[in-house]
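A reminder before we start the practical. When you read a complex entry, don't treat the lines as separate problems. The point of joint prediction is that each chain is placed relative to the others, so the output describes one connected object in space. Small molecules and nucleic acid strands, if listed, are placed in the same frame. In the example below there are two entries. Take a minute to note the order of the lines before looking further.
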Amino acid sequence: MTTEHNPSALAIPPRRILLGPGPSMVHPRVYEAIGRPLVGHLDPLFLELMTQMQQRLRQVFCTENQLTVAISGTGSAGMEAALVNLVEPGDEVLVCVNGVFGNRMSDIVGRVGGMLHRIDRPWGEVFDPQEIQEALDRSPATRVVAIVHAETSTGAWQPLVDIGRICRERDCLLLVDAVTSLAGVELRIDDWWIDACYSGTQKCLSCPPGLAPLTFGPRAVDKLQHRQTKVASWYLDLTLIQQYWSERQRLYHHTAPISMNYALHEALALVLEEGLESRYERHRLHSRALMAGLAELGFAPAAQQGHRLPVLNAVWVPEGIDEAQVRRRLLDEYNIEIGGGLGELAGKVWRVGLMGESARRDNVHSLLMALGELLTSTTDSAEGTAALDAARAVYVS
Amino acid sequence: MTTEHNPSALAIPPRRILLGPGPSMVHPRVYEAIGRPLVGHLDPLFLELMTQMQQRLRQVFCTENQLTVAISGTGSAGMEAALVNLVEPGDEVLVCVNGVFGNRMSDIVGRVGGMLHRIDRPWGEVFDPQEIQEALDRSPATRVVAIVHAETSTGAWQPLVDIGRICRERDCLLLVDAVTSLAGVELRIDDWWIDACYSGTQKCLSCPPGLAPLTFGPRAVDKLQHRQTKVASWYLDLTLIQQYWSERQRLYHHTAPISMNYALHEALALVLEEGLESRYERHRLHSRALMAGLAELGFAPAAQQGHRLPVLNAVWVPEGIDEAQVRRRLLDEYNIEIGGGLGELAGKVWRVGLMGESARRDNVHSLLMALGELLTSTTDSAEGTAALDAARAVYVS
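Here is the predicted structure of the whole assembly.
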């Protein structure tokens, strides 16, 4: 039952259960918001929406940073915006790489003309603050440290507060990729001494992809204001973008993606109505249930113990399973999307996202039931029942 | 009756009549499409939608270019994508400037490290092919000529075919900004020897802002493949983006803005159902009616005679009118948005967009009636009636 060549399926897409690395599922209120009638990008109503959205973004980022905006592109545009604004040609930058997205940051630093210092950890592991300290000892002129909070490619969860302290002591800027963590696991920009941070909308914010929340603290703004060179990108130049977002200026830069901003504005309202702590706890709960069930099916966690993201559950695919075929059958027969491995983990891991609206008990059950059925050819069918029992035990505990 | 501080207006925005420089109005089928349930960016259904969308974009661009995609950002991201991919540090680029957007192209060429040759025309006028010829005689190493087809800041409509021929003879690439022209006035990429072209969704395509259609011909692709340096932007790097859009590869680059792509896919269907020639004619008709009515109210066209865009009607604001106040009253009291002047034309011109779904007889009538009422304090009220009569004469002719 493949839907691939059914043209009408494009007009009425199936309601996929989105348990991949994003996009995650979207609340009906957000679908309603994205279809609201357009107003202009300089309409007083839209400017008011921007102001409200900034206030909501600050709450979700746990920051008072004035320069808190939504970049008009996806999370990767957020990454590029953060780096291209903070790094000038010749600036020394330390990038911590333990997966695809740290790697991407290194790539961008090179394109911007920064002098790259790179430290690596095996994929799935996290960095010890000591390693950052030593790297800064080796390269004391480093001005920016870039690190990923939640590595979407591996499911590793990087602690940040001690690294923040070290960067502050060394007068380095700390730049954090929070694409997969924002609104899913704790993230405290101000308390953790994070100077610049970006995210995406299609992960734990449960909004369609297309915008990149970004926040710059006073030290990052200071760097921006004292640049010797123009920002290499006009589109992502925060010295211009902030003039549009500033309530006192509202200078036209580019035409904002109105509908996407309607959607994010509503998605942020849902996050704040639930409350950040409750939302973090919900993600932890469903991850525990999922991982208990997956363990019964023979899937072991892939990320470093004690540093596993609840929102992106990476597991090793057991020997003997044709992982691409099973993922395809999950999609075609059960309407469930999960993620395969990226980069050096391709074909080896699955990445099961439980982000935002996707982190629901019925979704955990649906996936475990489907896998129980699909894997009976290679495992004992009793394991499917055991998987559901294991998840249930978590929910009733 | 200001709506500025009415919080509920954000949840249920008024149905604005959008007659500014974009966003234009959106057809209900496109609003329906943008709210469809998400599927993943690597879902076979989404990949099929991308393939269909490329076919539709090629038809609208009148091209067979393989590399025809939608960039995940607004029209300005399309501009940056075109320039950053075609221009390497030190490359000589001729930019033709007769308004804000030519100016923006010059700015970006500088940021990319290109060697800028710039020719200027007074705002509102267009370039004669002879001027491009002479500029290339002066700088024979020029490799790219960049020009705006439809200057959104002035309403000037630049003929291109002769410039295309000159560029082909000189082995230059011709790069065209078609943000405001695509699907509103004739644009023939292949027949006019245009090597690279970008647009935006929120003008004559009548889709919400957020994507930038872009097409590169074989000579532009050849330049891309023989670059000596990496593209300065990772997010806009077409050597990577084309691997995602290629049906044979479908390599993950970034998470596509799914909802925006649903919307553009549907907006393109509407364009093709209407037919390009009928659509161009519709834009011409409503522009003639509007300009006839505006003439009765004392507004003279601002762009060069014979080169006035039907989709973006720029007019001089008569002496004695507080143009900002009238525009604000149009918005607050009549729900009509029109555009003020940009750059050196700020405070001097109005820009009335009749793009895509906005180019309708009822919108022309609504604006002329509203202006007739609002301007009675400064003009004779009989002029309002005369304006409607003048428009009607166009429609019945």
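Discuss with your neighbour: Confidence is low (pLDDT under 50) at residues 1-6 of chain A. What might explain this?
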